[in-house]
């Protein structure tokens, strides 16, 4: 086929790279918001831990700058869920920024539904929620793509280089394809000097697998227009490009980015990591908040008046609640106000030099420690009973303690505090299944009997989940008695210690996926005349 050609024009543009190696992004100065929280929303993945890494990195960077009272992340496929994240926030005003590449199904349907948003600004449970535009549609993304292209191929002469921006491409989201086409047009018009700037896709024409046929140049730079190095950008596209023979491990465990240039099909192929992993995305997130303020001019919020969650946590620990999940909380261990370690390793933790346990200062490593089990399994559900051993984390105050626990057991401290004071809303299974869309819509056709069986097959410590189920099937249908329905959310706490139970206020994504499979099996087992 003939591929559309976008010759680079000689129009000057403020992101021209011809005269500078690493251009500064033209970010707006950001006015600090000491009474507001930032909530970054991502997709997340049940299979690939690299998928959520950029969201945490951007949150860390913004937190480091001290611009908000709180910075949180939440996900569609990982924990904390969007609904649970709102319980973790003390601030009365929340800016919600979708870290998505385009407007579409997730930003227009899923996020508003899950966060119960009613428009640009929603007031719910005493909080004012501002819904910003997704990161990927911000005008500064063009600069970021150019920057990424130059970083990956610093010595390639643009005049002999084709720049391909690649994405998924699917009939399901025309906006994502349009966003990529727009970027290709903007860069072609930017004066960056590339011989050709074009778009290509995994699942629609022009196909990225044909990258060499699109380029007359010696060099080809491919920049994936994805928010993270998930399955597509680092496992599927490398195979389509011919860089790998088969789908490989996650990005963090592969060398696919580090071998540039690759000599392939008589060209030099440079492949970059996903555009969303660019550290300057943190600035784009802030830009979206500033743009929201410019457009809507919200009144500044009052300072929060209720005691923060960290203060509640301090009181819980003082009252003797020194375990959560598989973690023991120590007070005043050596010179440290708080320390966390695996509940099986109290003997080591209290020895000199912590008995040889790997010592982590501050909450920053909590995500790494909790991501993989000892056998290398990805713990996308943090309530799993396979937290690894061999570490101790020392913390300076209750804020750090809360931050660390929110990585080990996302949202669980806040849920328990709300549960204790009787303000935690609980979602029935039918309500949870009823709000599924896309391929998971089908999950709601599971029978009550099938759902009860599934709870016994999937939940509870016998199946590696340490959470206490709070929900019923529907308001009139409690769970049938079983080890899973009886479990109290506390794993083997000694009699002299109390624990903060892990609570399941609505069925997790893993359970929803299992419902879908079971519903399908039920349907397949029915005579064809009564199939759903
Ligand atoms: S639904 Fe079941 S498996 Fe999922 S978190 Fe709740 S108790 Fe655990």
Keywords for this structure?
6-stranded mixed β-sheet, 5-stranded mixed β-sheet, Rossmann fold, Gyrase A, domain 2, 532 residues, binds iron/sulfur cluster
How would you describe the overall organization of this protein?
This protein has 532 residues and is α/β, with parallel strands linked by helices. It has three domains: 306 residues, 3-Layer(aba) Sandwich (Rossmann fold), CATH 3.40.50.1400; 112 residues, Gyrase A, domain 2 (2-Layer Sandwich); 89 residues, no CATH class. It has 17 helices and 18 strands. The longest helix is centred in the C-terminal third of the chain and has 17 residues. It is globular, with a radius of gyration of 25 Å. Iron/sulfur cluster (SF4) binds next to helix 17.
